[in-house]
Amino acid sequence: MVKICLECQSEPEERGPGSALRELLTDGETASTDTCSGARLTDFCAVWDAGVFLVSAAGKGAPSGVKKRRLNEAETLNSVREAQFQRLEAARPRGLGRGARGPVLRMAGQPPPWAYTAVLLCALSLGGAIEIPMDLSQPPTITKQSVKDHIVDPRDNILIECEAKGNPAPSFHWTRNSKFFNIAKDPRVSMRRRSGTLVIDFRSGGRPEEYEGEYQCFARNKFGTALSNRIRLQVSKSPLWPKENLDPVVVQEGAPLTLQCNPPPGLPSPVIFWMSSSMEPITQDKRVSQGHNGDLYFSNVMLQDMQTDYSCNARFHFTHTIQQKNPFTLKVLTNHPYNDSSLRNHPDMYSARGVAERTPSFMYPQGTASSQMVLRGMDLLLECIASGVPTPDIAWYKKGGDLPSDKAKFENFNKALRITNVSEEDSGEYFCLASNKMGSIRHTISVRVKAAPYWLDEPKNLILAPGEDGRLVCRANGNPKPTVQWMVNGEPLQSAPPNPNREVAGDTIIFRDTQISSRAVYQCNTSNEHGYLLANAFVSVLDVPPRMLSPRNQLIRVILYNRTRLDCPFFGSPIPTLRWFKNGQGSNLDGGNYHVYENGSLEIKMIRKEDQGIYTCVATNILGKAENQVRLEVKDPTRIYRMPEDQVAKRGTTVQLECRVKHDPSLKLAVSWLKDDEPLYISNRMKKEEDSLTIFGVAERDQGSYTCVASTELDQDLAKAYLTVLADQATPTNRLAALPKGRPDRPRDLELTDLAERSVRLTWIPGDDNNSPITDYVVQFEEDQFQPGVWHDHSKFPGSVNSAVLRLSPYVNYQFRVIAINEVGSSHPSLPSERYRTSGAPPESNPSDVKGEGTRKNNMEITWTPMNATSAFGPNLRYIVKWRRRETRETWNNVTVWGSRYVVGQTPVYVPYEIRVQAENDFGKGPEPDTVIGYSGEDYPRAAPTDVKIRVLNSTAISLQWNRVYSDTVQGQLREYRAYYWRESSLLKNLWVSQKRQQAGFPGDRLRGVVSRLFPYSNYKLEMVVVNGRGDGPRSETKEFTTPEGVPSAPRRFRVRQPNLETINLEWDHPEHPNGILIGYTLKYVAFNGTKVGKQIVENFSPNQTKFTVQRADPVSRYRFSLSARTQVGSGEAVTEESPAPPNEATPTAAYTNNQADIATQGWFIGLMCAIALLVLILLIVCFIKRSRGGKYPVREKKDVPLGPEDPKEEDGSFDYSDEDNKPLQGSQTSLDGTIKQQESDDSLVDYGEGGEGQFNEDGSFIGQYTVKKDKEETEGNESSEATSPVNAIYSLA
Q: What are the record keywords, sorted (predicted)?
């Protein structure tokens, strides 16, 4: 990771630093607004990492609260990896240096510092491209071009980019569809000045579609010709949706449904989404979701789906338009006409609504298997959408392995599996499993991974001196294997003039004894059926002495304790070597606090005061040398030592927030304030001073967080406090009841007394406890030698004391602070005390955790836990490391180390050593250390176990026995003997098995072991190895063995169905693991009714039978079934199911009865029944009166036919009184949409003769008839003709 200290001054007459930083960023990324924002300071010792500036972590010497906040801010911003920068470093070519990316230059008469950094970071972004200074002759290089598939908006002018650099400046021409494109003949086409970019102007008319085709740009100067990619130009299309009238979709509740979108084909393809016609989004879930093809799938339709319509919408990218298809309207046929919202959360919603449950079936894709091809590097999207009742769950698996957890993610409620950045190992068979409680089904998708060409070695520009040798390598891979074609200056290499210094060997061109005439641009085109790659690489022959590319005598300023890197950009041919020197000293800088990279960059790991000085870089080749100097200045960090505190204030009072800062006096300090992380506007109620902010007449709007920002041109520090504003209240009688409890105020006025050699007394004044008594005080200390700025807990004291004697260690420059604690929390730390340094002494202990372990087969690394500042006891703490071979008379080897590790080289393999590590400082040595036994590095074992014997114990386990290996062949610590075994095949034909290798370890020096959990009736192979700390040794001879038959697993998908009250149907599938040859199935079942249990019945079936029907003995009892499969060994695991409950016990029937009981007890229902009874009574009375008055009267039948003389009832003058009470009441009629309507009674007054066709005879007697009107017969022809009593009518109403 590289640190860049930037000076971003926001002056009105200059470009803003934010824009400068944005120009520095690569790949279109933008800088964080925290980086260059604020009044004057924008960036401070930032870290450059893949185009993002990151705030540095807290420097040394900061208070822990401030440091913690700095670290949190740094972690928030640090979202990119250091490995990205290391890749940039590795990709940089030899011979190309960089400008300083540590603290930047500020010299009079030169550009601002970010200008150099911008140039150098842009050079870094080119990766491995070699840069020749533009004042030297060079062939053309394409620097910018349009993408291969170039889609343009037909409403705009067409722009096809092609830019190149070279010396002399290149000229440009184009081909279209592999033919020369004459720009001068087309008035709409022009080329930008000093560029090859084509502009096609349609302001004066014309059709963009006429210019579609394949374009290629050629950039040429006298040293060669460079080519762009073949750019396929296409005009965006957004066709209109065809007009269509959509009939309502009629579907039965519970059935699956697919609403097809079929959007018009656009370029690029539109984005599909579903909404209602009122532009409300369609809620999607596990049951209803949109597929990848844009269709809307219903796994099962419910009645509530009718509440909206469904319209498919297509959004087109270039035109920014949304087209809406005519909406679909659903009509759901149901057995339950009421859309009761309470049923949506019913535990068995489908049964409650009378929807039959169904096993899953796939809606997409169809069938049981399909295949899919995907290109390497693309995303693989597999989709399975299933129907069923209840809604099925979808699970995904890969045959013979696991899903790639780092790349696989589930989408669309687990219906889609997406694997990002597909590679060849992702090919294979995947299957989705759709399951509900009725069963499961799976679909297998065979995935084939192909690959467009991708680079293994992309050709790079070749810069050679006359007489040097070199090579261009063009190596790519793909599937199918791509072909490689070489061109020179845009022409096939075969047709180019012969060059005796050039030799083509497949994907490599070798140059020998190159001369000036060898300059050219070579193109490598590698292609297969899925795509192509085109790369330009020039060969330039130059004879140039070293030259420096950065300004001379740079001044670089850095903050103390930070890391920086000094760069020295240079060029030369032959490629120069680079060395660094400091203050004119003759020794080359490398090692210790300095590290020189292969590209010549000098890194200083941690800047100290003594690192200040003048650094010189010298570049040398056979033609001469060049040098440059950099002056490094080290500045103290900016730190806030008195931070603002959280405060609670009443409205109208005055609040002061302190912010006192310590900074380097040579840097200009600026203090600003933020409110709620936004710049604070200083109103007339506020007063901003150098070390404080005062707010007069506090109001509710002043409540929030306040951040003090202290910044210089190199760094900054932050401190935050929260202001709480209380509303006006009446003065309370009890102060404790009026104010809430809070954290205590920090202690103050720390004082050191009773100064002794190993102790000191610390006294402090407690702060306000804020209505909660102080329970404890924590004393912390900080020392400025080993970990400056880091606070450590020293001791803890009860809240009743304010003075304590502290035990101290020798040679520590102590500084103390105190934190108060109550039940609410901890106070802010007190201000630090004055420092007190104790006198030195020899160490009284040695480092702990001493170990000796080999990291390679010929070394031993000795490590230990270094001693901290309180145990060093003196300056220059170091460690005396001693070692020798164990049980020998050798003398001790010793070395003095300042770190915490030492590597002993050239050791024999795995030999014990005696190790001692002793602490030493300038006052003397520590006590005599203990001896620790360590071992040198291990090597792989050289021998395998022999005479491996296998004994089969049972169908799932074997016993192993082997001969131990000789100890000298282990070459390390014997960890275990390990058996690798795999299932080669099953003894059952056509049974697929996984051949994944498994292992079983037997720790220690054992000679036998047991391998269990094997599959019965299978062929296995086994190998054994010896394992030590380095790894596995050679494999033993492969042994084969066969496991005998075992008992099978339980039959799968055991289903019990009861089609009627007389029979029960049983179905099952074969066991997943037969574990042998199946000889049949055993079914045991017993009838039970409550606590009564009948006699168990046993049935045996053949291995091919998977169905059976049981005749019920009575319609009341239930049955419990137990089914198991059998092999010759015996019966396997049984699966148990019970028959469904009889109808009179089922939940829906019980619910129906309860509903009846509930209705019968309702007041309105009782009143209705009383009214009907009263009406019937009145009718009977009227009929009785009429009969007694008029005697017998003829009444016509329902058909309107005149009474003839043949009617016997008329002859005798009697009145045929039909029993209307026993005639059927008019029933209900079922509507087309499945609902039931209650019809009005035909027994109206009109039918009784009071109007309509009813008549009175001459004496006023009533002559009536019961008539069914013709129009009612025609409109209500499906009325019930079934007789219905009043009681039945009640039930029908219920």
A: Cell adhesion, Disulfide bond, Immunoglobulin domain, Membrane, Repeat, Transmembrane, Transmembrane helix
